[in-house]
Amino acid sequence: MPLTIFKRGRFWHYRGTVSGRELRGSTKATDRQIAQRVASEIENAAWKRHLDGPHAHVTFAQAALAYLEAEKSERFIAKVAAHWKDTLLRDISAEAIRQSAFKLFPRAKGATRNRQVIVPTQAIINHAAGLNWCQPIRVKRFPVETRVKEIVDPAWMAAFAAHASPHLAALGYFMLGTGARSGQAVALRWGDVDLTQRTARVPLSRKNNEEHLVHLAAEVVAALACIPGNRNPADLVFGYRGRDSVNQPWKKAVERAKLPYRSPHCCRHGFATLMLREGYDVKSVAARGGWKDPTVVLRTYAHAIADITITDAVFRTKSAQKQTMKSITIENKRKKKG
Predict the structure, then answer these.
(1) Are 206 and 281 members of one domain?
(2) What is the pLDDT of residue 225?
């Protein structure tokens, strides 16, 4: 659809699709004829860039390489890069990206297709757009079934720990108390832990050598203190070589404890959910749990409470109670005078 103009406030704006890319913006003109001319020039320039521009023949593979060289996340990149290969960026439309999600994950749910296809593909193309290699792209996400995350809470963890090895029990307590992912936790070495100061340095990104300082609750310190061994700084704290090596002993311990199954990652769910239930704000929970984007915490864990009587809390705050007592005192004095 060629660019059309419409008025918004004082200025004329343009919108439409050129070479498969959606364009919209302000002409910064108040006169209709001038605005139409500006829109035509923008459309002609877009076609010229698409057909003759210096980056008209950039491939997805080249864009993916530039994305990784900029030290962006490698997560889920390999599969989409293998799918698009040397496809020109200008030939990749939003609908083509959605269709690629069906091809790559034919039996997956919307959340998986969004996370592993749409998000990384769009991120690579938009990074290329930032380099003026192409136009940015917006892709409609697949509907996602929202479910309350199953969590590990202290009671579940205590029952689990009673049937787990000291290493596995400490791992569970550490993930629940810090929000660490299992991959981050198993990479922890004794040199990263200070039981006296009750802190640990959790690796956030091996590629960028990022670390995240976490506080260790008394329960976590006690569990770590029960791990046998010499605790050499270079030794792995929990003794597992990777997160996959945790799954089998974790399942066995859950079975012995006769508990409803919760995966190791449910400890991270429990950390976020319990912190929010205690009234801590989303930004603080994200910072303490190592989420870079607080909106992820808000979208995933901030579930509405079903009990309608929680609105009583409005009148239980300290300021509200103080004002209520003041009003009662004034009313009693008025009655005495009367």
Answers:
(1) yes
(2) 95
Amino acid present at 118 = I
Would residue 31 count as lying in a domain?
yes
The pTM of the whole model exceeds 0.85: no
What is the pLDDT at residue 307?
57
User: Is there a domain that residue 124 lies in?
Assistant: yes
Structural domain boundaries, residue 93: 60-130
Judgement on whether residues 281 and 159 belong to the same structural domain of the protein:
yes
Partners of 23 in the beta sheet? Answer: 16
Radius of gyration of the chain (CA): 28
Classify residue 237 as exposed, middle or buried by CB count within 10 Å of its CB (0-12, 13-18, 19+).
Answer: buried
Q: Is residue 141 part of a domain?
A: no
pLDDT for the residue 156: 96
Same domain membership, residue 166 and residue 110: no
End-to-end CA distance of the chain: 78
* Whether residue 23 sits in one domain with residue 114: no
Determine, yes or no, domain membership for 93. yes
pLDDT beneath 50, residues of the chain: 304
Residue with tokens 């969590």: 151
Closest CA relative to residue 188, chosen from 216, 151, 164: 216
Please state the domain count of the chain: 4
